[in-house]
Amino acid sequence: MSLSIQYDTEFSSYSISQYLTEWASLFGDANHTNNNVTDSNSGGFYGGTSWNNGTQYALVSPNNDTSAFVAEGNLTYQFSNHVLYGQLDTLTFGDGLSGGTSTEYAIQEPQVTFSGLDLSSIVDSGREGVVHEVVYGLMSGQVQPLLDALTNAGIDINASLDSLSFATATSDAALSADTVVDVVGVAETADLLAA
């Protein structure tokens, strides 16, 4: 695993564990279980040859319609065993999800992206395969399988993102509360209007 992380500066002081735990608490459990499967909690594939495979799998939280993740690699879902398997290379977390059936998925406000994950499992691994455990875990609001995979690869999940040599900060183009904006004009106050 040659991991690299890109993160929004808002999360500089967060550890991997802190960020993922906070994300999961907002995302919640999509409740994608027997007799509870709906379009809103199933997510979707892009870039494949049929409905059950692709280069991307994505899901927006049915609990808040905002929190989302995109998994990238070479992913296949076997319906008969309900197993996701293949190669998982990149995970992006954030708010808002665009794209889908005919266009590539994208997180509208990306927060953290893990690239170079190099996680793989075969269909015979069943639900114990790391790809299934990680992605189904995320669908269920559980990040421990991903944290375990990172820990097993020697990644310090408790170090702040800004202290990791393989992590890079990005800045959101939107104005933040700390942004100074020069304004030209005349202030209108009640005193001026009463004159």
UniProtKB/TrEMBL annotation:
InterPro entries: HasA_haem-bd, HasA_haem-bd_sf
Residues annotated as binding heme: 32, 77
Tagged with keyword Lipid biosynthesis: no
Alphabetically ordered keywords of this record: Heme, Iron, Metal-binding
A GO term, aspect molecular function: metal ion binding
Designated name of the protein: Hemophore HasA
Organism the protein comes from: Pectobacterium aroidearum
